[in-house]
Structures are given as structure tokens and as C-alpha cells.
Write a structure and sequence with these properties.
single chain; 359 residues; alpha/beta; Beta Polymerase, domain 2; 2 domains; 6-stranded mixed sheet; elongated
């Protein structure tokens, strides 16, 4: 690779400033990572690189005449944030605008550059500086002067960019029109998929908000039982009164534990809506308490788990529906995993249930 004297000087400057760029890379990554964490944004990828010497030399060979100093090359340091959804790019770009000084004249939104009948590389590129108010190192004032490039794009946009770079940009031969057409078709499919993923996510989030609102308003018979609705229902502490009543048998306390494992069990018990769970609770609450009396009386146990309320409700429902010991064994196996002890436990519970005429 043959470079003129000016480009050789730029390359020499690159070698001198390489430690500064490496330090700057670490700073930029930390700032971006902290920003994403602070705003609870989960991304597919966060990366940064200092341009390799060979890559920089290639750029200088093509258009080194454009640059007076190394700092005129804005992508010697490049950072990239890859989002899961394309609409998150705008969210992250807004955060970047608050964090960094943006060189708008050299920033590019490639999402707006394509013609209406074209598909292809979609990405948002900001050329940025780190303001002293955000980070300052008195020993390295250059960190606040050197510009860097921040790319923001979705996972599917990233897939396309990598494919195009490998197949098209890297190639030294012109791509025949039939291959260009196939690549354009593929780009269109990826862009459509990106849009559909965003749309589906919005619709699911809308559905969740609607369901949460229905649960909060008590329209439980209209709320289908699924993982989301059950979790929302549990946030209302629907079994608290029964759990407190059971704990009071020995003047004890209730220990909060996780009731989500009961979701699949309730489905297997043919519960279709959240209202079905409420009906079970109302119907069998007193029997569940009476069973707890037999279980805890004389034990001195002063700490009970919150789940004991729902567990006893399920036990009573299983016995009332005539599934007996076998039904209880299946219940315990589903809840805790298969264990020979469950047969003994089921037998003992059935004996207790007979004493209070549950069966």
C-alpha cells in the first residue's frame, strides 16, 4: 500500500495517539453501559473499537487528502449499540444527545437516506465528543477534544450491515445485477421483519396493560388465566387473609414465598380464568383453614409460608372433586418433583380430611 508523505504523517500521528484512543474507548464504553443500566435498557450488543492500522491506511489511501490532522477522521474510535427493536434506536439516540456533544454536521441518519423504492443499510451515526461535565481527566485533556462515531441500529439492521459489508463492500468486483436484486429483496424482508417485531411487541404490551387494568378493576371472570395475568393477580395478594388466619393458629408470622409454580397446576385443575381461582378461594377457604388447624395444632410452628393458603385451597379442591390420594400425589409431584414421600403425605392428609368431613 503506497501512501504519500501527508498520509504517512497522519499514520505516524495515529501511532502516537493510540494509547489515548484506547483509554477513550474504555471511557466511552463505561459511559454508555452506565447510561443503559440507569435507564433499564437491555440491548443486544454494546461494543467499541479503535480502527486498526491497516484499515486506517486503506482509508487514507482512498481519501487522505480530505484530512488535515488525525482528529479530522471522526471514526478512528467507533462505538456501536445494537438494540433488539428498531424503535429503540430513537430512545437511545435521545439519551446520547443528552450525554454527548453531537457534531450534527457530520452525523448521519442513514434510515432517512434511502429512496422510496430502495431497501438496505439502515443505521443512525452520531459523531460525538465527551463533555467535561460528563467525564474529565486532567492528565488527558484530549479525551474531551477527540471526536468518535457512535452507531445505533437494531439487531436485524446489524445483520444486514454485516452481510452487505462482507458480500458487497469487501468485494473488489462489481456485483452483477441479479445478485444485487437478491440482496435488495433480502434487505426488504429484514426491514419488514424489523417493523413486525416492533408492532407485535407494542400489541403484546397493550394487551398486558389491558389485562392488568381488568385485574385491578376486579373484572376477573373476563381475564384468561396465563402467566402474565396470574402474576398480576398475585400482586394483589389475593390469599393474604387466609394466610394470616392460618398463621394466627400459633400466633405466628407469614413468610413471603413464590406462588408462580402454582400457575401450571391451576391450569391442570381446569382453571380457565382468574375468576375461577377467586371462586375456588371463596368456596373452599373455610375448609382450607380447618385443614390447616389439624396440620398445625400442637406443632408450635410460628412461621408459615404465604403459599400454604393456596396449597390448602388446591388440596381441598382436589379432594372435593373426588380425586383422592392419587390426585394429591400428582399435585405434590407437579409442585415439588416426584418423591416417594408424597404418597405418605397424601395418605395423612386424607385421614385429616375425613376428620372434618371433607371426604
Amino acid at each position: 500500500m503506497k501512501l504519500d508523505v501527508h498520509c504517512e504523517m497522519l499514520l505516524s500521528e495515529y501511532h502516537e495517539k493510540l494509547p489515548i484512543y484506547e483509554k477513550m474507548k474504555a471511557v466511552v464504553l463505561d459511559l454508555l453501559r452506565n447510561c443503559l443500566d440507569k435507564n433499564n435498557i437491555l440491548v443486544s450488543g454494546l461494543e467499541a473499537r479503535v480502527k486498526a492500522e491497516q484499515s486506517l491506511a486503506g482509508k487514507l489511501e482512498l481519501k487522505g487528502y480530505k484530512y488535515h490532522t488525525l482528529e479530522d477522521i471522526t471514526d478512528v474510535l467507533g462505538a456501536r449499540i445494537i438494540t433488539y427493536y428498531s424503535d429503540e434506536v430513537d430512545i437511545i439516540s435521545a439519551l446520547a444527545e443528552k450525554m454527548f456533544e453531537i457534531d450534527w454536521a457530520n452525523s448521519v441518519d442513514k434510515r432517512k437516506m434511502l429512496e422510496i423504492d430502495r431497501f438496505g443499510y439502515l443505521s443512525l451515526h452520531y459523531v460525538c465528543r465527551i463533555p467535561e461535565t460528563l467525564y474529565k481527566d486532567p492528565e488527558l485533556p484530549q479525551l474531551n477534544k477527540i471526536r468518535f462515531e457512535l452507531q445505533m441500529r437494531s439487531t436485524l439492521q446489524h445483520v444486514w450491515a454485516n452481510m452487505y459489508h462482507d458480500i458487497g463492500y469487501k468485494s473488489n468486483v462489481e456485483i452483477p445485477i441479479e445478485y444485487q436484486r437478491n440482496m435488495t429483496r433480502l434487505a426488504g424482508m429484514l426491514e419488514l421483519a424489523d417493523e413486525q417485531f416492533c408492532r407485535i411487541r407494542k400489541e403484546i404490551n397493550g394487551y398486558r396493560r389491558t389485562v392488568q387494568s381488568m385485574v385491578a378493576m376486579g373484572k376477573l371472570d373476563e381475564v384468561p388465566l396465563n402467566g402474565d395475568t396470574f402474576r398480576s393477580f398475585l400482586s394483589l395478594k389475593p390469599f393474604k387473609n387466609l394466610a394470616d388466619k392460618i398463621a394466627a393458629i400459633n400466633h405466628g408470622e407469614v413468610y413471603e414465598d413464590n406462588l408462580m409454580p402454582y400457575y401450571r397446576i391451576l391450569l391442570n385443575m381446569n382453571m380457565k380464568t382468574i375468576g375461577d381461582i377467586v371462586k375456588m378461594s371463596k368456596t373452599y377457604s373455610e375448609s382450607a383453614y380447618q385443614l390447616a388447624l389439624l396440620q398445625l395444632a400442637g406443632t408450635g410452628l410460628d412461621i408459615v409460608t404465604y403459599s400454604v393458603a393456596l396449597q390448602n385451597l388446591c388440596i381441598v379442591a382436589i379432594l372435593k372433586k373426588g380425586f383422592g390420594e392419587a390426585g394429591l400425589v400428582s399435585f405434590f409431584n407437579a409442585l415439588y418433583g416426584e418423591n416417594d414421600y408424597h404418597q405418605q403425605r397424601a395418605k395423612r392428609i386424607c385421614e385429616q380430611a375425613r376428620k372434618i368431613n371433607l371426604i
